[in-house]
Amino acid sequence: MTSEQTHRLVITEDHTILREGLKALLGTRPDLEVVGEATDGREAVRAVQELNPDLILLDLSMPRSNGLEALKEIKRLSPQTKVLVLTVHKTEDYVFTALQAGADGYVLKDSSASELTLAVRSVLNGERYLGPAIAGTVVSGYLGSRDGKPLRPSFDDLSTREREVLKLIAEGYRTKDIAEYLCISPKTVEKHRANLMDRLNLHTVSALTTYAIEKGLVTS
Q1: Which of 60, 64, 110, 212 has its CB 3.0 to 4.6 Å from that of 217, i.e. a possible disulfide?
Q2: Rounded Cα–Cα distance for residues 195 and 53 (Å)
Q3: Is 152 left (phi over 0), alpha (psi -120 to 50) or beta?
């Protein structure tokens, strides 16, 4: 019998083929045991409550309750559970928001199998792990942009009116319709949209829409 501790893992990923691949990869390690799977944020929270894993591998882009909301809830209910984010998103906003919500590690989906395994073990050992590309993003963010603008604000920093405009933009409403719905002028709507694009560093409607979906303002 080995004296090496076996760590319990839950994998959260809504794409079956990716989830099965992760399970096959991590489940073969003698010190790791995949005890549960989840396909969305709500299932992830429930799995943590029922299975009490040592670590949960968490995607950010999922249906129903998204990964960021699940992350906050997991850390609230089970602060001892380590959370390793595995995602395609590498912009400053995603990284900093996840870290602020309590993520213990952040790795991109295009990472190698060896890097993912290293990330899992590092987080389980109580270390904060950031993939190489993410570490660069964090450093760049703390140093600030070349033009001296502050870091992109978190979602919580947006005003109620900015969130309302963002939601309606993401739902496909035109400037005139948004103005009528919110009882403001079209110029005010355009100003809010310009401010959102500038503050979030997202310069297309599709980018704003993706952001709104990730923040749970609208469903995809």
Answers
A1: 212
A2: 42
A3: beta
CA distance linking residue 131 with residue 137, whole number of Å:
10
Q: Is the pLDDT of residue 98 over 90?
A: no
With contact defined as beta carbons under 8 Å apart, do 123 and 104 qualify? yes
Sheet architecture: strand order including 55-58: 32-38, 7-12, 55-58, 82-87, 105-108, 129-130
Sign of the dihedral defined by the CA atoms of residues 69, 71, 77, 79, in that order: negative
| pLDDT surpasses 70 at 68 | yes
Q: DSSP letter at 37?
A: E
Give CA 133 to chain center in angstroms: 16
Give me the count of residues in the chain. Answer: 220
Which domains, ranges and CATH numbers included, belong to the chain?
Answer: 7-143 (3.40.50.2300), 155-214 (1.10.10.10)
Burial 94-108 (b: 16+ CB within 10 A, else e): bbbbbbebebbbbbb
| Three-state SS at 152 | coil
- Residue 166: its pLDDT value, please? 93
Q: Which pLDDT score, from 0 to 100, does residue 125 have?
A: 94
Classify strands 82-87 and 55-58 as parallel, antiparallel or unpaired.
parallel
Dump pLDDT digits (tens) for 114-130.
999 999 999 999 999 99
